[in-house]
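Late entry, evening session. Most of the bench is empty. Finally got around to the prediction I had been postponing all week. Sequence below, unchanged from the version circulated by S.P.
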Amino acid sequence: MPDSDRLCHGDFHPWNIMGPPGATTVIDWPDCTTGPPAADVCRTFVLLVAPVPELAHDYVVRYAEASGISRDEILAWLPYVAAARLVENVPNEEEGLLRMAGADSASTKDPSWFLVEPEEPSRKWRMTALGAISVVYSAIRRRLV
């Protein structure tokens, strides 16, 4: 996998975005490191995919559009990131993570391919998460343009 010296958060998800639109702050930086942005985006995908698969898929697609890093480059990290997540022993994620750890890029075209028993998240949670992620998309786009 490619090496890089870019700042990576390591635990980026909606619960680590605080503040109102236009004045948001990303918190919880203990897992930050330098590395390839695609790996960090893939980590976010893995964190979001069990609770809100549509949001996880949309995050990767929109990040790819805004950054110029392809979806395939991001998901090439999936076996490594999923395997690393397995050692965190997150309840009810083991089977899905094992599927992701053995994934190839063709199997990831459908955002629900890895689900064991999909659960519908509450609409309120989904809208809150989507709002937080779209603030970050806007910030990424502004920095890239």
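Two things to note before I forget:
The longest strand covers residues 6-8.
The chain is about 50% helix and 5% strand.
Will write this up properly tomorrow.
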